[in-house]
Structure prediction request, 208 residues.
Amino acid sequence: MSFDFSKLLSVAWGGWTTAWPTELLALIWLAFLLSWIGASFWQGRTKKQVMTLESQRYSLPILVGGILYTPWIAELLGWKPLWVPGNTGVTVAAILSIAGIAFAWWGRLHLGKFWSNTITHKEDHRVIDTGPYGIVRHPIYTGLIFGMLVTGIAIGLVTTILGAILISLGMWQKGRMEEVFLSKELGEDAYGAYCRRVPMIIPFLSPR
Prediction:
């Protein structure tokens, strides 16, 4: 008996299109996910990284948030959207989500070989403080948090809103851990000074 992958894909995609008010937002995030995973092969060699157990402090809320962000949890619970944004609302949400994703991609491309999905010290690592890193210290998190919150609110499901909040908290925690790690690895004079000069995630706020 052969496995019909097309049926599995149909069921999976049907979950998004029936639980989310629009296919457009789902397509945007699916395209982002595929492109992000595909680009993960482009990174420098790791010199040192945070241990797995420590990484659970940020990976767990991101994982739980990601599960809540899918449409199947709300469908399983029988929850309906709190509101329906309409065509104009969906269009605005799509534009803002794409803007957030574009900002995140700008950060990733500008970081180049120093990017990593985990907290690492790459070979020849140095402080990057130009481009989007001159606006915020974590432009990738800034863009993704903004885009996911916009999408979560537009969808209007309690689960997607909670999921977006949990993912945001996880990214904030990861950012804090990165800064402690890089301050030790790159030196307080270099990375610490950068943290005192540039806002963490929200542009134009006082650096902390």
Observations:
- Helices lie at 5-19, 23-39, 52-69, 71-77, 86-111, 139-155, 158-186, 188-197.
- Residues 21 and 155 are 6 Å apart (CA to CA).
- The first helix runs from residue 5 to 19.
- The chain has a mean pLDDT of 82.
